[in-house]
Amino acid sequence: MRVIPVTVLGKEYDLCFSTRVMMRVEQEHIDTDTASGSVFLLSALMEAGDRYAKLNGQPGKGFLTVDEIADNLSPDELGKLALSMTLATSGERNVETVDSEKNAEKTPPDA
After folding, report:
1. Within a 10 A sphere around the Cβ of 95, how many other Cβ atoms?
2. Which of 18, 41, 72, 77 sits between 20 and 30 A of 100, alpha carbons compared?
3. Do β-strands 3-8 and 11-16 pair in parallel, antiparallel, or remain unpaired?
4. Helix, strand, or coil here: 98?
5. How far apart are CA 43 and CA 4, in angstroms?
6. pLDDT(104) > 60
7. Which of 46, 39, 44 is nearest to 4 (CA)?
8. CA–CA separation, 111 vs 98, rounded Å?
9. Radius of gyration of the chain (CA)
10. What is the DSSP letter of 34?
11. Please, what is the average pLDDT of the chain?
12. Alpha helices of the chain — where are they, by DSSP H?
């Protein structure tokens, strides 16, 4: 799994792109290129990060609901988080990875 740490409203959360997130986006027919879709995706990635930590015996960092994000982040702040969401869903950054049979380990930096 890819886990990207982000700070939102002064608190650190983990974004995790899981199959559950992909399924939720598909089931809800979410267009992640819209503001509402971005808010939905951010909340889903945070929730998946919290769930993933707990499943691996680590304390979860919690997550923000769609309403909490919509009520507290400006469009500019949401735009700044878009890169982190892209990195979480594409895996183009050194992030936490998990071998399904081992504990989490750091991916070595690209040369």
Report:
1. 19
2. 41
3. antiparallel
4. strand
5. 13
6. no
7. 46
8. 21
9. 14
10. S
11. 79
12. 19-27, 35-55, 66-72, 75-90
Structure tokens belonging to residue 95 = 């992030």
Query: Among 103, 107, 85, which Cα is nearest to 95's?
Result: 107
Cα 51 to Cα 21: distance, rounded to the nearest angstrom: 11
Give the pLDDT confidence score for residue 91 in this predicted structure: 59
How far apart CA 63 and CA 46 sit, in angstroms, is 5
CA–CA dist 88, 97 (Å, integer): 11
Spatial CB neighbours of 78, under 8 Å, sequence gap ≥ 6 = 35, 38, 39, 42, 69
Position of tokens 């997550």?
63
Contact criterion met (CB below 8 Å) for 108 and 93? no
CB 84, CB 4: distance < 8 Å: yes
CA distance 44 to 63: 8
User: Which position has the token pair 């609901």?
Assistant: 65
pTM over 0.90: no
